[in-house]
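Journal club side-thread
Mid-discussion, someone asked how the predicted structure for our own chain would compare to the paper's figures. Pasting it here so we can look after the session.
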Amino acid sequence: MKVWLRRLAVAITFSLGAATAYAQTPQGFDHGAWSQMLQRHVRWISDGHASTVNYQGMATDKDKLQNYLTALSAVSRQTFDGWSREAQLAYLINAYNAFTVQFILTRYPDLKSIKDLGSFIQSPWKKPFVSLLGQTRSLDDIEHGLIRGSGRYRDPRIHFAVNCASIGCPALRPEAYGAEKLDEQLEDQTKRFLGDRTRNRIADDALEVSPIFKWYREDFEQGFRGDKALPDLLARYAGVAGLNAAQANDLRGGRLAIRFGDYDWRLNDGRR
């Protein structure tokens, strides 16, 4: 009995040590371990407009992933509230993406889509399995509650950063988001996604874009950088989206229709 207790104490001490090994400073959280995993197991494809994940490789790092998630879970709401806006948002985006990878690994390789982790009565995004900021939350709670619903951030580019483990989703970036370069990373993600002609393109005298712009249209029309209408935001990235000057003007003037394409929910698995 005493041997068992000693082993348990050692295991608890090791777990706590792993969790506290991540620097929590007034400036934010150290996401270096997550960044290393992403660099090892995520790669750009389609000329950098999309990415795939080596989930089998991620599985070999499951202990490191768990340590990172444990450290994220150890952050108190008081500590979080003391961080800058950029540090908070980087923390939440990284948490969403890392917990999503862990979620996929609970059944990998026996799934074709993240939707396979849901049920008839509950979508996978509503399952409460994420321990974050003192509560057990779902992925929806992170995205729609802490990020979109808080009113703190109001940056529609987050929709190109949170990754739902699907081909139709904007790329999982092969590096963690960081407070010091968050704006640069979000802008790069936006341009990479809009530059993907499989999801955003001129087709039959209309601009066909991802349904992400339909699902979250209100976010893209809330005045970010002065854009209060979806056509204005899309026209801002006209060159990236493949529009010439005349088409951009037509888009702003309502003379170029916007259509929404389909969404590919297949797993963004690099081994398939």
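Post-session note: The two ends are 48 Å apart (CA to CA).
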